[in-house]
Amino acid sequence: MCHATHDLKAGKENIMSTTFVDEKPTQNLEAFKGVKKVPHEEYYTSGHRTCQACESAQIMKLMAKAAGPRTIVLGATGCMYVANTSYYSTPWGVPWMHTQLGSAGSGALGVAAALRVQMRKGAMKDEPINVIAFCGDGGGADMGLNAISATLTHPDYNLLILMYDNESYANTDIQISGTSPYGANTSFSTPGKVKRIMHHRWKKNVAPLMIAGHPTCKYVGTISTSYPLQAMNNIRKALSIGGPTFIHCLNPCPKGWDFDPVLSFELGELAVNTGIWPLYEVENGNLHLYGKTKDIANGRFKRLPVRDYLLKQGRFAHFVEDDIEYFQSKIDEMWTKWLVPGVIPLQKEVEADDPPAR
Amino acid sequence: MGQLFAVEIIYRGVFQKTLAKNITRGIVLAAHNEGKLGISFGRYGDAPERNGIPAKSFAIIANDEQTLEAGMAQYEPKHVDLTVVLDDTLCKGAESWAWYGLQPVHHALKSGHTLIVVSLQDAPTLLKTIHRREEPYKLGILKGVTSFSGMWVYKDDHTDVRVLGAIAKALPELVSLKSVEKFITEKLKNSLKVTSTQTAYQRFTAVDVKPGKGNPEELFNFELLPWENMRNGVSIPGQPQGGPYADPVTKQTGGFRPARNELFKKYSTRTQRPVVNFSTCTKCTLCWLDCPDASFDVTPDGTYDANLEACCGCGICEAVCPVKDCVTMVNESLFHDNDSQWVRYKKDPHTYLKWLEKTIEMAEPDEKRSHGFRYRGQYQEQLPEALEVARKG
Questions:
Q1: pLDDT reading at A5 higher than 80
Q2: Chain B interface disruption, residue of A40, A42, A46, most B CBs within 10 A
Q3: Is position A2 within any domain?
Q4: Alpha carbons B272 and B370: distance in angstroms, whole number
Q5: Chain A residue numbers touching B272 (CB-CB < 8 A)
Q6: Which pLDDT score, from 0 to 100, does residue A13 have?
Q7: Considering CB atoms only, which of B238, B289, B376 is closest to A90?
Q8: Best residue in B16, B95, B100, B239 for a mutation probing chain A (most A CBs within 10 Å)
Q9: What is the CATH number for A167?
Q10: Which domains, from first to last, does chain B contain?
Q11: In a domain, A23, yes or no
Q12: Cα dihedral sign for A179, A184, A188, A189?
């Protein structure tokens, strides 16, 4: 839809507006100024069948809290769909609908478009309503990538795609996804006596994929559940800025990563502090690193060794010294060789990659 | 039709998945040594399994193929000859998915048959939590530290073969000790494990539990809606918004209690619970904000009270609490209710704080009760203690 209209009577074309984008206003969600200002209301409450210390449920709770009551959530198939729809019951306090595994993008776009039509026809009150599609790494980084990409090129519709990343197809018992880290033990990469490392692919760098590929997208960012206030405020920013937006959240998964649930929060922090999970946002084309990631980039904080992160997880229990060193060297590369450290993996000189196990 | 046996293993999802599988597999392979046929399988309704949530695994054994087929035709066995509970906190009941409600652990156990519990507690203590029932049964305790590991790294502390030894003692018609020993020698090729299974067999005893004995608590249950009474389409009602509530002493309202899903509570997932010292709480909000289950009620005082109907006992609140000894995780088996700690504190702060101190003290030996992988080498460190208990029986 555009603002160009034809004045047939006058027999000439009248361009009403210079922009061809039909923008609708969003809810103006200002940042929460401190943890004490976070509202008490829960729109995703207790009674879901997730694991103990499920950080994916945690980001869902924070997302619902940040978005507030005038919100529609779409859930692509995954842990967070199955665990929230046990017999005739739900923890949701805002409307939630299931959408197919690969259709987080198209589902969100369709809902945003339908809302616009209903409002234009006067079938419902004309007001800004948040539309959020919540998809996992399997649904977002693998199967739904094309639909998300297409959606991010539609500037007319206000919506957010939030990808929660537990680094595997966790719902069906931990199969490799595009975001599973190098060497991790999964149902598809069980280490053996002959071959120790069964997963050789490096984690997909999803947010920069969205940044580089969709220049009209106004907001793309990464968040972590271990920084809940910042995560909520970034979600509020993404919902307020207008147009389609994308957020990638890392969620430690006690089941698939194999760790004591009490460590969930700590592992989220360690992922940031070791430099594996950089925190940043790209707002109207401007990149801001934030939190500890900013300190790492500025040299104010020395990255912790990756070993601290890896050895707390059963999925890396088969790693030998060489594997840990290789993992570390890949993270070092992110921070010392990349064109935009931690974010954009373009390099002037690429050295031969030589993993310790083939 | 020949004779058909069914064994049910109730275990903590993911934490004991491999252990339960090893036991049911062991039963079938040991029964093979007696010319019997069998199959072991996990309950379909438990998949996808979530960590901590009660799950079940079965072994079905028969003398001939036809009988086995008849046994396999069921979705899950309605009646079992033996129930094994791998974690004593499960004695409070198992709620797997919402439609089951809370079921007692001896839900499917035939009259007069044996319930085996892996525990360090004695029978009278366990009977405070195991619900009463009308048919008699036998309660046998296999002394042992609860064995928890995770998806990939297995803690091989001999619990699997010790349970097999206890099963051979409790139900020799199913499988004899000799057959179990043969299975371990031939398939597991571990002579230490043969000793462990023999010790467990020798030491294992069961006591008779008379009808009506046990925990009188009413089980949490609800009416399952038949399909014709459900709403049109596939829509279901959402949760209403919560609101402030009253202080039990001053009667002033304040704070915030979220609405709770009435059809699925999460407390049967819990193996430990947070106890809160309200007098040292700085109201920093972190436990409340970081709880994935939204289980904290904001009290009218501005402190945070773990709602024990919603808490699944993950321990994040203890991990993020900046005050020393404000939130402490304590073994769930010490408790027999889900009452609000804050209400108790408000009514009598002095008694509550005394109780709190005592409870934490009592729970201290259980601090080692780990819930899976924390660091490499941890299971090896825990092994001697578990094996010592196994040796003493």
A1: no
A2: A46
A3: no
A4: 10
A5: none
A6: 46
A7: B238
A8: B239
A9: 3.40.50.970
A10: 4-219 (3.40.920.10), 240-368 (3.30.70.20)
A11: no
A12: positive
Min CA distance, A115 vs chain B (Å)?
19
Contact A90 B261 (CB under 8 A): yes
CA-based nearest distance B64→chain A, Å: 34
Q: What is the 3-state secondary structure (H, E, C) of chain B?
A: CCCEEEEEEEEECCCCHHHHHHHHHHHHHHHHCCCCEEEEEECHHHCCCCCCCEEEEEEEEECCHHHHHHHHCCCCCCCEEEEEECCHHHHHCECCCHHHCCECCCCCEEEEEEEEEEECCCHHHHCCCCECCCCCEEEEEEECCCCCCCCCCCCCCCHHHHHHHHHHHHCCCCCCHHHHHHHHHHHHCCHHHHHHHHHHHHHCCEEEECCCCCECCCCCCCCCCCHHHCCCCCCCCCCCCCEEEECCCCCCEEEEECCECCCCCCHHHCCEEEEECCCCCCCCCHHHHHCCCCCEEECCCCCEEECCCCCCCCCHHHHHCCCCCCEEEEEHHHCCCCCCHHHHHHHCHHHHHHHHHHHHHHHHHHHHCCCCCCCCCHHHHHHHHHHHHHHHC
Q: What is the pLDDT of residues A194-215, one digit of tens each?
A: 999 999 999 999 999 999 999 9
Q: What is the pLDDT of residues A277-334, one digit of tens each?
A: 999 999 999 999 999 999 999 999 999 999 999 999 999 999 999 999 999 999 999 9
Q: Give per-10-residue mean pLDDT for chain B (393 aa).
A: 93 96 98 96 86 94 93 88 96 82 93 96 95 97 93 94 98 97 96 95 96 91 84 87 94 94 89 96 96 96 95 94 93 92 96 95 66 90 86 76
Distance from the Cα of residue B253 to its chain's centroid? 37
**Rounded average pLDDT over A124-151:** 96
Which tens digits make up the pLDDT trace of A24-61?
A: 899 999 999 999 999 999 999 998 989 999 999 999 99
The answer to whether the CB atoms of B260 and A82 lie below 8 A apart is no
* Secondary structure, 3-state, chain A: CCCEEEECCCCEEEECCCCCCCCCCCCCCCCCCCHHHCCCCCCECECCCCCCCCHHHHHHHHHHHHHCCCEEEEEECCHHHHCCCCCCCCCECCCEEEECCCCHHHHHHHHHHHHHHHHHCCCCCCCCCEEEEEEEHHHHHHHCHHHHHHHHCCCCCCEEEEEEECCCECCCCCECCCCCCCCCCCCCCCCCCCCCCCCCCCCCCHHHHHHHHCCCCCEEEEEECCCHHHHHHHHHHHHHHCCEEEEEEECCCCCCCCCCHHHHHHHHHHHHHCCCCCCEEEECCEEEECHHHHHHHHCCCCCCCHHHHHCCCHHHCCCCHHHHHHHHHHHHHHHHCCCECCCECCCCCCCCCCCCCC
Q: Which residues of B touch A172 (CB under 8 A)?
A: 48
**Any domain includes A8:** no
Q: Is a pLDDT exceeding 70 seen at residue A18?
A: no
Instruction: State the amino acid at position B291 in one-letter form.
Output: C
How many domains does chain A fold into? 1
Task: List the domain range (segments joined by +) for residue A263.
Answer: 38-321
Q: What is the pTM of this model?
A: 0.94
In a domain, A6, yes or no: no
